[in-house]
Amino acid sequence: MAGIFWAASGQTALAADYQGPNVDEFVAEMTRDYGFASEQLLDLFAQAERKQAILDAISRPAERVKPWKEYRPIFITDSRIAQGVDFWRQNEEALARAEQVYGVPAEVIVAIIGVETFYGRNTGNYRVIDALSTLGFDYPPRQPFFRQQLKEFLLLAREEQVDPLTLKGSYAGAMGLPQFMPSSFRAYAVDFDDDGRIDIWSNPVDAIGSAASYFKQHGWASGEPVVARAEVDGERVAEGLSPGLDPVKSVAELRELGWTAASPVADDTAVTAFRLEGVEGDEYWLGLPNFYVITRYNRSVMYAMAVHQLSEALAAARGQQP
C-alpha cells in the first residue's frame, strides 16, 4: 500500500523542531504526489531535530584551498594504503565480482571508499533526517537541493522499509561507506549480495557494488587509463588550462598550445587540462574520460587525483604481498 512507510518507533518528541507552514507544505506535497500518510510524516518531523552544528559547518567560510603538495599527503598515507589493502583482502570476492560486472578496477573502488570514509571508519554521526531537515528548511542558500534530497530520503526509507530515524550520515546527509546522497542511493545503489535489501552503512559488499554501479553508469571505460602526464612549452600554455572540469579541448588542440602528452593519447580525445602545485614544482596533467568520471563523484580535480593515486598505491602494495 502506498501509505505504508516504516515501522512506527512509538516515540514522539516533547518539543517539535519542525512544524509550521514550510513543513506542512512539504508534507502536503509528499502526501499528494507520493502517497505518504500525513500524520506519519508530521510525527517524523516532530522527532527531527534542528542542528545548529550542521548550519555552522555548511556556512563556515571555506578554508584556504590547499595546494596539491599539501592536499595529497592527507590521503596518500602509509596507514590508508595498509588499511586499504586489508579492506581489499577482506572483500576480495565482492571486489572481483564488481570488477567483472561493472568493469571498474578493484583498486579504484577501494580508493573511493578509502578517501570518502577511511574504509567505513568515518561515515558520519548525524541522523540523516536531522541533517536534511535542518538544511532543507533552515538553509536558504541551498534549500531546493536539500529539500529534494529530503524527499529522496523519505522515498528511500519507504522503498527499503527502514526507519528514517535510525539512518546516519554526514552533516550534509551523505550516507554509508561510499557517502551517497539519497538521490544517488536511489539511482545507483545495488543489493550486491542479493539478501533483499540495500545496506551501504554496514555491508561492504553492497557498498562496493554500489560504488562500482555509480562509476559504470557515469561512463567508466574498462581498461582505459585515467590521466596522462603532460610536458609543456611555449607562451600559450596557460590558454590550454581547462576553465572547469569539463573536457573542452582535444589533445590535438592542446598540442597547438604547447601541451604534449607523455604517454599515447588519441588526438581527438577531449581532456581536462590542469596544473597542480607539486612538491617539486608545477605538474601538468591531462584528465582522460575516466578521470572525468571520478569528478562526477566529487567535483574536484585534486579529489580525483587523490583517488587515482591512492588506487595506484593500493595496487602496488597489493602486488608486493606474497
TrEMBL record:
Q: What sections of the sequence does the record tag as coiled-coil?
A: none
Q: Which GO terms describe its biological process?
A: peptidoglycan catabolic process
Leader peptide range in chain numbering: none
Annotated transmembrane regions: none
GO MF, one term, reads: peptidoglycan lytic transglycosylase activity
Pfam families membership: SLT_2
**Catalytic machinery residues:** E116
Q: Please state every residue range assigned to the domain named Transglycosylase SLT.
A: 22-312
InterPro entries listed in its UniProt record: Lysozyme-like_dom_sf (IPR023346), Lytic_transglycosylase_MltB (IPR011757), MltB-like (IPR043426), SLT_2 (IPR031304)
* Protein known as: Lytic murein transglycosylase B
What is the originating organism of this protein?
A: Stutzerimonas degradans
Lineage start: Bacteria, Pseudomonadati, Pseudomonadota, Gammaproteobacteria, Pseudomonadales
